Amino acid sequence: MSRWRGAVTSLNKLIGEERAVVDAPTAAPTPLRPIDLTDDARVAEVLDLAVRSGEVLLASGTSAIDTTNQVLFVAATYGLARCDVDVTYNAIRVSAQRGPTMPPATSMRVVHYRSLDFTRLAAVDRLTRRLRTEAVEPDEALAALEAITAAAHPYNRWTATFAWAAMAGSASVLLGGNWLVAIISFLTTMVIDRVNRRLNRIGLPFFFQQVTGGMIAAAPAGVLYAFRDHIGSGIQPSLVIAAGVIVLLSGLALVGSVQDAITGAPVTAVARFFEVLMMTGGIIAGVAITLRIAAAAGSTLPVTVPPALSPALTQIHVQVVAGAFTSLFFAVACYAERRALTAAGLGGAAGILVYYLVLGLGVGPVISSAVAATVVGFVGGLMARRALTPPQVIAVAGITPLLPGLALYRSLYALLNDQLLDGLGSLLSAFGIGVALAAGVTLGEWAARTLRRPRMLRKTDALRRPILRHRRTDPERVDRKERS
User: What pTM did the predictor assign?
Assistant: First the structure.
């Protein structure tokens, strides 16, 4: 019995009682300091705070439903409990009902940027926690939000560049490459990042940045393969290209698009998914251009060999460590806080371990990816609460090692060499793996939300206000205490 109680206590410590972003707010707390609904300026200030906090979430790839819940909760915290929120691909609209005798108040915010800054996302999460527990004035909260969005990244640009490059090196080892492949992937990705940053400064559309990244990712592989006899070391060009493709794919909002489709936001889901397809098409186009140029120069890359379904038992620990470092470096590249880095690395290791364990059962890579992503989403949701960081950080970083970079390259190679059936089969496999990863993360986060519902919400379906109780003091006990 004592062991059972100890296990239950450990589980309660893990899942805790602190509320997180992934827990959909079922009811807003009674406003600690509600605003005057007849004051137009005050109402407009609260709505601006609500839509701007939602803007940070939407720009970071959060689903439309979670963004809507964020806007509703911030507005209800100040007494605007009756709001209609419309979140689309790049805009947030909110209309607050103020009663039968007053016109509704509306506000709108257009998201002009996409930014994977997980530190900013975590800071907004902490600000929302403050609004739930403290009587923060709207102008004070708005000033804090402006400071969060205007703050510089916690790491400098070169740290992020090194993290992207190290992520590519870890991904190449994860795919089965040796030290030479890892070094080439590291240097290639460093060039991709610096070139794309320069292109972004001059305003080149992101699609053409992906094309450029795909060209750079394939160029060193073709050159080194052409001079493989002079180098004296075997090189697998497909692994170098696949590692670069994984890095380019990791910044796309695949998880958010599938989450929108599953949770009932089809318009935003279609827009996001089309963006993912266009950016992926840019990568494919860039790689194809380089491969055609290499073939014209007489450096035709060899046919890619499909990787083994499951590595040997002696190699699984290498895969798990490589997956952990891939997720960790992705979190650093996205400016995650230090407290979230360990959780991100553990999420990547857990995803790879579960993937290969399920793959060993012979169910195929799509189902294995779905199961691994579900575990990552579930465990990541619980671990994120202990690290006080949004679960999206752990989930997105955890599935990064599972992205289908090699399958995408194999489909492209087959299509360029008139192997239509093989190319379409590999392309559909890559597409299925991507959707399975996003769907698995969504299911895992839902399971974490269901398990992690606070006890006070189970009892009352609303948050309770703290109550101070005065306990009567026994005079005789006080006299005995003074005499002693």
Answer: 0.78
